[in-house]
Amino acid sequence: RRREAEPGTEDDIMNDQAIRFRFGIFVLTALILLAVLTILFGGFPNYFKRSDMYTIIFDNAHGVAPGTPVRRSGVRIGEAASIKLNDETGKVEVLIRIEDKHPLPKNERPTLGQNLLGGEATIAFLPDPKLADRSPILPNSVLLGVTPPDAGSLVQQTADLMKPAQEAL
Questions:
Q1: pLDDT at 110 (0 to 100)
Q2: CA 77 to chain centre
Q3: Sign of the alpha-carbon torsion through 79, 85, 86, 92
């Protein structure tokens, strides 16, 4: 005849500990799997990509924030990593991260652009006709960025030209 385990016996305590241990291992494995999936698909999409860093100096970096896309020929090749204002010069230093499979040629200039509809800022590398050197820019280089004039400054320049034009007439 089989002997039934009485509650509180040594066998009962061992079974209870084994169940708790297995449940703890299951919960720990689930948490590790959740962390790995979060890293891969959400929180750190660029964590496993190799990239090169560059610094761009702008006079005005309106709308630029960490995560601002960097494009070349309309294709996203990186993003802004950080923005820092130099209080002495009043210039803005934008640190960008570019995928290492997209070398930046010396004949292209970083230009700040804004989407007309959404106002989203982008940094685009556009060809400069004055420059012919297509050799790659070395990583960790400092580049001078181009900020196109905005509508307010164009209106101000037009207003400044109106008075001399009226006097000439």
A1: 93
A2: 10
A3: positive
**One-letter amino acid of 38:** T
Q: Amino acid letter at 89? A: T
Q: How many of the other CB atoms lie within 10 Å of CB of 66? A: 12
At 88, give phi and psi (nearest 5°).
-75, -45
Question: What is d(CA 99, CA 49) in angstroms, rounded to the nearest whole number?
Answer: 7
Contact between 95 and 53 (Cβ < 8 Å): yes
Average pLDDT across the chain, whole number: 82
Closest residue by Cα to residue 143 from 107, 113, 101: 107
Half-sphere exposure of 52 (CA within 13 A, CB side): 14
CA distance 7 to 33: 37
- β-bridge pairing 142-144 and 51-58: parallel
User: Cα separation of 60 and 74, whole Å?
Assistant: 22
The model's pTM: 0.63
User: How far is 154 from 104, CA to CA, in rounded Å?
Assistant: 31
First-to-last CA distance in the chain?
Answer: 122
108-114 and 121-127: which strand pairing?
antiparallel
